[in-house]
Amino acid sequence: MIGPAYLLRPRALGLRNRWTMAEPGERAVYAFFLALGALFWIGLFAGMVYGLGTFHQVEVFGPLITRKLMELLLLSLFAMLIFSNVVTGLSSFYLSEDLELILSLPISPPVFFYTRLIETLAQSSWAMLMFGVPVFLAYGIVNDAGWAYYVALTVVIPAYLAIPAAAGAAIASILVTAFPARRVRELLAVLGILFLVALFILLRLLEPEQLVNAQNFESVAAAVARLQAPIPLLAPPRWASEVLDALVRQRAMPWQQLGLLLSGGVASMGCSRWLTARLFADGWTRSQEARAARFARSDVLDAVLRFATRPLPRPLAAIVTRDVKIFVRDPAQWSQLFLLLSLIIIYLFSVNALPTDVVRGPYMQSFKNALAFLNLGAAGFVMASIAARFQFAVVSGEGRAFWMVRSAPLDAERYLWAKALPGMVPMLVVGETLIVASNVLLDSPATLTAVGAFTALGLAFGISGIAMGMGAMYPDFKVDNVARAAAGPAGMLFMVVALVLVAIVVSLEIVPVWFLLRADFEHGSLGDGEAALAGALFAAVAAVCAVATVWPIRRAAKGLWARNL
């Protein structure tokens, strides 16, 4: 009989082969980002040690604040883990491409369940290990915890992760008995994005920067009472927090809470296995149903696409039409437009909340203008993030159907340009909206607003070219979700290159913007030498963006058709 180790072995071998069979250049990229991840982990750990140490030194409030931060971390991670495990459980138990092979093997239902549960837990719990473990270690160091605390972490964390993993698998099994698995995953993706949108907007409307104002607390007693508000007794975050808090303060072990946590993990896995065993057959059958494509087949969309692609050659128009229809058919993709909208709202709220009144007098407007200019760098980062999602991964999104595109009578460079055009629309809309609206909120002069609009246009094309070029140089045709392609080492390398472009553009514009703002402040005009230098630097910006737009796509097109699936 086949056991879990046999089924998990191909995953481990695949990870090993990803390194051993990689080319030297790819190994260097992997090593670079592994080192970057390690530095991030160390930096987060050092920052948490400093932050928790600062809170801990506050009289009366210090221990209460650190304990409440621990409870909030465990509570928020638990909620995110349940949602993440539901989505991952749908893919692991019902939508994975290797299920047909796995189900044909002589394996028992418990072995199948626990193998998939381990995969679900591993894929969904990386955030806990990446962001939670440094906090737990820093919490112990700041409070001078004994060795028992660190030993307990090796027991508490796995038990804590097992409960949402089992709950996610059970919820996924219940949902697929009522709805097809693909529709459930799409619905959860939309709901998750809408939840994040609402959360981001709510946090921005609450103005959390006001929490540091001591005048907002009516009294010390009210503040202490607010900090001591407990988590419900029958919640796993309450059990874990009480165990860790008791050990970190070197008090007696709360055996009842530890027993609840361990027995809860075992019981949740048992109940989830029992429920999944009875619902899996019906859920697996319903997961084979295909989604409907009503809007993608509508005459209105066809008419709009025909009008929009009329200036393009027919091969390019066909690719643009196909990509747009694929986009509107997949809720996991078009629902991200809500995220873009929320990003614009949050960004503009944050700009409006900037402390522009810290500088008063005749130099207040100069301070606002400086903020508006620095805003170009922040907007460039946002545009690079959008390009990573909407443009970098579009070639990888072809998947195993890439051979059909490669066999078509189509030039590789024209193909990449056709793939880049739809993604430039959100880049231009978001970039121009962020920069122009921010300048209006900061009451910037018209010249600075015009410079911002010019910069947003150049960065939109330049970052798009880099995204398409690097996405075609490092495609991943085996990825089952295009979002994962953007989160890999090549996607991180693209972000670095895109941010270098943003830094170069902003650096080239420092001198001409200084000339323009000084002339506006003095109500004068530029001298001949200053005008010539400003024009040359703006021309250099245009040239850099043009090269970033064209050269990566041409470079990637030379070897695109030679790529293997």
What keywords describe this structure?
single chain; 565 residues; mainly alpha; 3 domains; 22 helices
Q: Could you describe the 3D structure shown?
A:
78% of the residues lie in helices and 0% in strands. With 565 residues, it is mainly alpha-helical. Helix 15 packs parallel to helix 18. The longest helix has 35 residues. About 3% of the residues have low confidence.
Principal-axes geometry comes out as: globular
Structural class: mainly alpha
- The ordered H/E elements are HHHHHHHHHHHHHHHHHHHHHH
Helix content: over 70%
Q: What radius of gyration results from the CA coordinates?
A: 27 Å
**Count of alpha and pi helical runs:** 22
Low-pLDDT stretches: 208-214, 217-227
Number of strands: 0
Largest sheet geometry: none
Domain tally: 3
State the distance separating the first and last CA atoms: 34 Å
In a few lines, what is going on in this structure?
78% of the residues lie in helices and 0% in strands. It is mainly alpha-helical. The protein is globular and about 80 Å long.
